[in-house]
UniProtKB/TrEMBL annotation:
Its cofactor is L-ascorbate. GO terms for cellular component: endoplasmic reticulum membrane. The lineage of its organism: Eukaryota, Viridiplantae, Streptophyta, Embryophyta, Tracheophyta. Residues 67-79 have a biased composition (Basic and acidic residues). This is procollagen-proline 4-dioxygenase. It comes from Oldenlandia corymbosa var. corymbosa.
Length: 309
């Protein structure tokens, strides 16, 4: 009520009559306007509110862009095929890049699932190895990949965690689970890294391939205090013509966060290797990095199912 100058109505409702009709009329108008704009504020928040309403932080919602009335935007599941589902699935992702095709999946797995995978892997860690090119030896490639790791298939995990993760990966990629190699669970300690490399095997360097890696899905099992990013030094086509030092941590970097997923494609849709899919793991500076990698191939994997003997 402070806003009303003149002071006569302040703190006392009994003197309305003495104010005269014009003032009351004005008062009514202002209440009406206040009500009108007040309601408009709720129905059209973007145009009318004084402070912009906090938007969902990063979610670009389809509904927001749509001009269709609210009721029409609801979506009921359709009749589905034998292998389909009667419900909608939502797996949020962010497009990190189109060169290479890289998607980020926040909270892809739960903290419990991550802990369970680490627990399984911990007891079986061995120094990670490399696929060697012609002329390379274990000695000559020392220092390129310094993590420890182990391989585990989903059928070996009695808790069912890996099977659930695998299921979700196959939904996110629409590539059948049977095209996946066993999970490679890796641990990087301080200073440990993986220099930039391709996950796909170029036949000119590695000889003829029975099958090729199409895509890689990395599930970060831990946060890393500092360092340990997954880097794409050629992202967007940069650094490619210079003499890039493969141990250098440059380009697009993805910070590991427990439960988050990173998917990128090593091949173009036509099956040739995407040169921008070069990537590596920056050295861990502080803390420890745990990651589960799933390499996805163009052929079904013979060892995907447990041996039936
Ligand atoms: C395959 O696709 C890439 C990207 O579109 C293109 O640059 C390349 O020339 C294609 N290669 C062949 C052999 O078709």
């Amino acid at each position: 009520m402070k806003n009303f100058r003149g002071g006569k109505i302040v703190g006392n409702g009994g003197r309305w009559q003495s104010l005269g009709l014009p003032f009351v009329f004005l008062l009514c108008i202002s209440f009406f306007l206040a009500g009108f704009f007040g309601s408009a504020l709720f129905s059209q928040p973007d145009e009318w509110s004084m402070q912009p309403r906090p938007k969902p932080r990063v979610l670009e919602s389809v509904a927001e862009k749509s001009t269709a009335p609210e009721e029409d935007r609801r979506f009921d599941p359709l009749a589905h095929g034998k292998s389909g589902e009667g419900f909608l699935t939502s797996i949020p992702f962010q497009v990190l890049s189109l060169n290479p095709r890289a998607l980020y999946f926040p909270n892809f797995a739960t903290a419990e699932q991550c802990q369970s995978i680490i627990k399984m892997a911990k007891v079986e860690l061995r120094p990670s190895s490399l696929a060697l090119r012609e002329g390379e030896t274990e000695e000559s490639t020392k220092g390129i990949r310094t993590s420890s790791g182990m391989f585990i298939s989903s059928y070996e995990d009695k808790t069912g965690t890996l099977a659930r993760i695998e299921e979700k990966i196959s939904k996110a990629t629409m590539i059948p689970k049977s095209h996946g190699e066993p999970f490679n669970v890796l641990r990087y300690e301080i200073g440990q890294r993986y220099q930039s490399h391709y996950d796909a095997f170029s036949p000119s360097e590695y000889g003829p391939q029975k099958s090729q890696r199409v895509a890689s899905f990395l599930l970060y099992l831990s946060d890393v205090e500092e360092g340990g990013e997954t880097m794409f030094p050629f992202e967007g086509g940069v650094n490619m013509d210079s003499n890039y030092d493969y141990s250098k941590c440059i380009g697009l970097k993805v910070k590991p966060r427990r439960g988050d997923g990173l998917l990128f494609y090593s091949l173009f849709p036509n099956g040739t290797i995407d040169p921008t899919s070069l990537h590596g793991s920056c050295p861990v500076i502080k803390g420890q990095k745990w990651v589960a990698t799933k390499w996805i191939r163009d052929q079904e994997q013979e060892d995907y199912y447990p041996k039936s003997n």
